[in-house]
# Entry
Amino acid sequence: MVTEIGGQIGWLATQMNFEFKKPVYFGDTISCLFTITEVNEHGWARAEATMQNQEGLTVVEAWITGRLPDSRDIEILEAMVAEGDPTNQRPE
# Structure
C-alpha cells in the first residue's frame, strides 16, 4: 500500500521502515493513512503511514524518507495519466 501511494504521487522512497503490529487475514479490509510530516528546501521528505483493519485496529506502522517529485517528474506523471495509465492517477 505504501509503495502504491508513493508511486501515485511520484515519491522516490530511499528508506522504508515497517513495524507489524497485528496479523492481517484473508478477507480483511485494510485502510492506509499516509501523511507527509516534513519537507526540506531540496524536496527531501519524511512521511508516516498507519494501516488499519476493518475494526480500526492498527496492523502496520511505517516511516518513509525520500524525494518528492520536481517539476520535470510531475510533467512525466501527467503525460502518463494523459496517455491513460490507470496506475498513475494523481489524487484529487
